[in-house]
Design goal:
The protein is mainly α. The protein has a domain of about 80 residues. Helices cover about 80% and strands about 0% of the residues. It is built from seven helices and no strands. Helix 2 packs parallel to helix 4. It starts with a helix and ends with a helix. Keywords: Signal.
């Protein structure tokens, strides 16, 4: 059974990596796209109930995998950006929006944790959320160093994500 679930997770991650490559090429548009993607996922999680658990969680599983891939692509966008693409003030606003969206997602997942953990998709989603946790930590460090105008706010925003994750595990 676990092998089948792992196969499903691997297949979904492979399928979503193609979509993640379509992310915009500037740091600002990447952050905006990541925020939009996160907000859409949050709406899906909020709509989760016992009547739609299997169909919704399979979609959540694929979307979390896609979000992980997209954050990786967004990270590469920052690495490849020219100094003229790093407008500090605009990026600070976008980073704040991104961390707020991530906090909302993690709080929504926390609210639905009992429903999720008792389902067939509980283990794969927990695994993907652990991966997302690591990816967000790395991305937060990168953003704090590459957008120094708001590194304190960025660090605080990602620390808020740590708090949201902490609530999820208790």
């Amino acid at each position: 059974m676990q092998f089948k679930v792992l196969t499903i997770v691997t297949s979904l991650l492979a399928a979503t990596s193609v979509q993640a490559a379509a992310l915009p090429t500037t740091p600002l548009s990447s952050l905006t796209q990541l925020t939009t993607q996160t907000n859409a996922l949050t709406s899906t999680v909020k709509g989760l109930n016992t009547n739609n658990i299997l169909t919704t969680l399979s979609g959540v599983l694929g979307t979390v995998g896609q979000l992980i891939s997209s954050i990786g692509t967004g990270s590469n966008t920052f690495n490849n950006a020219s100094p003229t693409q790093l407008n500090q003030a605009e990026l600070c606003t976008a980073i704040s929006g991104f961390t707020t969206a991530q906090t909302g997602l993690l709080n929504s997942l926390n609210a639905k944790l009992g429903l999720i953990s008792g389902s067939l998709f509980g283990l794969p989603i927990t695994t993907l959320l652990s991966i997302l946790d690591g990816v967000l930590g790395t991305f937060g460090t990168q953003l704090a160093s590459q957008v120094p105008a708001c590194s304190t706010a960025t660090t605080a925003g990602f620390a808020g994500l740590d708090f949201a994750r902490l609530k999820k595990t208790t």
